[in-house]
């Protein structure tokens, strides 16, 4: 490859060329076989990388994954809620538990072998049994009113309808089946999970009535019945702010700063993006966190790594000297551009502004469309 | 039972942009998380597959991304698409794993083992394509995780340098440098294999 402008192919591809440069580059590529070859090589690399990404996920797998995710998210939220409230209101919880136990015991005539009461409307057809430690009700048609009081560790109740399942989470609710499908789930206490074939999973809260096949005729019989989401799954906003997440890899890739819980944190669609800022005191992470850009065992790698370490130790003038020596000794090394940039940074850290400016101008002359052009231009403005 | 409930309809949903969905997630509406999942899971998994050698690990990370979203929804800035933000979370999770598993990986590499699970094969690919893909996969996993993340975001997901910089919280110059180094190393590696 003899063309000296093949580097422009990558620069153009990455959007690092200005408009004029891009036009000139396009004209050049039309005439230069080396650059066209370079372009093809990069295209092929991209095609290959896209193939590595593998086959598409099927809709079924996506649905399965979605279900698993929502269950885990719900469990996590409940766990957080318990952890938050556990120590604050132990007395209230104890009293509530005692009251519930009393009600359950009294409600079922003291025979608390089962804390599940089923009241069937006339004409209802159902069968009740236990399966795998869980109470099951197969509801063929009609209406059941069910009360469930859970003791610790007690199995849940599942109502199977012709077209799905209704799981209670400790509650009092009604299920109605007609013409072979679930027509109504109405909850007065607790929370019910409704999973019907071909429908999104719905979590129905107290005070809500869920009619899966009724798309119109929306009525609110009580003004304060609570908020509802139409795809089904809904949880009340927790009474406490959501727990602060654990910071994830802050050093490497910090999360955006957290906002307060106030909804004003959502700023709406974003305006023009600002380019990420580079502090003049920040050593580019290309060399430090990216060890391959440093010592790879070769003489050039060692020289570069030593220069970086020198800068890390705070010996900025010596580091600037080493980066210059590196760029002169290994002008075609892939780290030469980094060295040029780091030399500017080193001079700035040493407080030598004139030398920094000179090094920056030299960098821009040598790498007019370099990776660090914007950074260096910004440094020059300081 | 006293019937004082209000109806929950199955309404038609006008597609909401990601900012609005994440706001709902933050306010406790997990159905919005499901919508986001349907919208972006495939892209997140695609990225995770390129970054991790094992399919099962990639799937774990992709799930973990959306669980993380449920916890940190409030930190999203409200723009219409959250894709690059999700990619940022994916990359952080992968890099965390890479750090945690570095010692184990070194041990495995010393034993000369290759990643145990190769990606699912496309049904119609030829043996040659399959071989090239395996070579490229191997070369990709020889890159350092930061370089791997950047090249996959650029070449597979088509993010621009500034978008990647924002997703990863690094200067755009670093993105371009890593991208350049990653391409060079991949090409060198493939050249060596074919020499």
Structure description:
- The complex is a heterodimer of chains A (382) and B (195).
- Chain A has 382 residues and is an alpha+beta fold.
- Helix content of chain A is 41%, strand content 17%.
- In chain A, helix 2 packs across helix 3, helix 8 packs antiparallel against helix 9 and helix 9 runs antiparallel to helix 10.
- Chain B is mostly helical and 195 residues long.
- In chain B, helix 2 crosses helix 6 and helix 4 crosses helix 6.
- About 11% of the residues of chain B have low confidence.
- The chains are: A alpha+beta (382), B mainly alpha (195).
- Chains A and B meet through helix 3, helix 4, strand 7, strand 9 and strand 10 of A and strand 1, helix 1, helix 2, helix 3 and helix 4 of B.
N- to C-terminal distance of chain B: 79 Å
CA gyration radius of chain A, whole angstroms: 33 Å
Secondary-structure-derived class of chain B: mainly alpha
**Parts with pLDDT < 50 across at least 5 consecutive residues of chain A:** 98-114, 215-293
Question: Gist?
Answer:
The complex is a heterodimer of chains A (382) and B (195). Chain A has 382 residues and is of the alpha+beta class. In chain A, 41% of the residues lie in helices and 17% in strands.
Walk me through the topology.
The complex is a heterodimer of chains A (382) and B (195).
Chain A: H1 7-13, H2 19-31, H3 33-52, H4 59-86, H5 90-107, E1 116-120, E2 125-131, E3 134-148, E4 157-161, E5 164-168, E6 172-178, E7 181-189, E8 192-196, E9 202-204, E10 208-210, H6 285-288, H7 299-312, H8 316-329, H9 336-349, H10 353-366, H11 373-381
Parallel strand pairs in A: 3-4
Antiparallel strand pairs in A: 1-3, 2-3, 3-6, 4-5, 5-8, 6-7, 7-10, 8-9
Chain B: E1 6-8, H1 18-26, H2 30-51, H3 55-72, H4 83-110, H5 127-142, H6 145-156, H7 161-168, H8 172-194
Helix pairs in contact in B: 1-2, 2-3, 2-4, 2-6, 3-4, 4-6, 4-7, 5-8, 6-8, 7-8
Write a concise keyword list for the protein shown above.
heterodimer, A: 382 residues, alpha+beta, ten-stranded mixed β-sheet, 10 strands, 17% strand, elongated, B: 195 residues, mainly alpha, 70% helix
């Amino acid at each position: 490859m003899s063309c000296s402008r093949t580097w422009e192919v990558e620069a153009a591809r990455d959007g690092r060329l200005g408009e004029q440069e891009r036009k000139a580059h396009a004209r050049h590529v039309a005439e230069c076989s080396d650059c066209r070859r370079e372009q093809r090589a990069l295209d092929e690399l991209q095609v290959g990388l896209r193939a590595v990404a593998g086959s598409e996920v099927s809709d079924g797998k996506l649905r399965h994954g979605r279900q698993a995710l929502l269950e885990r998210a719900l469990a996590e939220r409940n766990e957080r809620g318990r952890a938050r409230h556990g120590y604050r209101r132990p007395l209230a919880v104890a009293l509530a538990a005692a009251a519930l136990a009393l009600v359950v015991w009294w409600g079922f005539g003291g025979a608390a072998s089962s804390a599940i009461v089923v009241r069937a409307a006339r004409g209802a057809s159902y069968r009740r049994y236990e399966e795998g430690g869980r109470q099951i009700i197969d509801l063929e048609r009609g209406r059941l009113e069910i009360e469930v009081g859970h003791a610790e560790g007690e199995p849940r109740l599942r109502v199977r309808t012709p077209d799905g399942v209704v799981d209670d989470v400790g509650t009092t609710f009604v299920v109605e089946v007609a013409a072979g499908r679930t027509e109504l789930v109405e909850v007065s206490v607790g929370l019910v999970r409704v999973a019907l074939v071909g429908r999104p999973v719905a979590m129905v809260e107290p005070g809500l009535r869920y009619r899966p096949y009724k798309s119109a005729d929306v009525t609110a019989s009580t003004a304060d019945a609570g908020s509802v989401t139409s795809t089904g799954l809904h949880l009340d906003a927790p009474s406490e702010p959501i727990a602060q997440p654990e910071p994830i890899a802050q050093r490497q890739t910090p999360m955006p700063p957290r906002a307060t819980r106030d909804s004003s944190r959502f700023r709406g669609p974003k305006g023009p993006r600002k380019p990420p800022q580079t502090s003049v005191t920040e050593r580019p992470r290309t060399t430090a966190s990216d060890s391959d850009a440093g010592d790879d065992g070769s003489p050039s790698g060692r020289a570069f790594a030593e220069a970086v370490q020198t800068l890390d130790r705070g010996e900025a003038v010596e580091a600037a000297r080493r980066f210059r020596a590196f760029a002169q000794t290994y002008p075609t090394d892939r780290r030469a551009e980094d060295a040029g940039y780091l030399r500017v940074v080193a001079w700035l850290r040493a407080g030598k502004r004139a030398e920094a400016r000179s090094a920056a101008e030299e960098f821009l002359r040598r790498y007019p469309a370099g990776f660090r052009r914007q950074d260096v231009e910004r440094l020059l403005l300081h | 039972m006293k019937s004082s409930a209000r109806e929950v309809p199955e309404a038609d949903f006008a597609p909401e942009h990601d900012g609005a969905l994440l706001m709902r997630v933050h306010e406790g509406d997990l159905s919005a998380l499901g919508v986001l999942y349907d919208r972006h899971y495939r892209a997140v998994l695609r990225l995770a597959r390129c970054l991790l050698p094992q399919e099962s690990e990639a799937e774990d990370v992709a799930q973990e991304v959306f669980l993380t979203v449920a916890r940190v929804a409030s930190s999203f800035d409200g723009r219409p698409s959250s894709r690059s933000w999700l990619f940022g979370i994916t990359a952080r999770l992968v890099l965390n794993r890479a750090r945690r598993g570095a010692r184990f990986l070194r041990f495995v590499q010393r034993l000369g083992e290759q990643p145990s699970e190769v990606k699912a094969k496309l049904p119609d690919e030829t043996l040659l394509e399959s071989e090239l893909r395996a070579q490229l996969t191997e070369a990709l996993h020889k890159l350092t995780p930061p370089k791997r993340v950047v090249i996959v975001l650029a070449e597979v997901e088509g993010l621009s340098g500034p978008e990647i910089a924002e997703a990863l919280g690094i200067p755009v110059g670093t993105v371009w440098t890593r991208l350049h180094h990653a391409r060079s190393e991949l090409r060198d590696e493939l050249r060596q294999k074919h020499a």
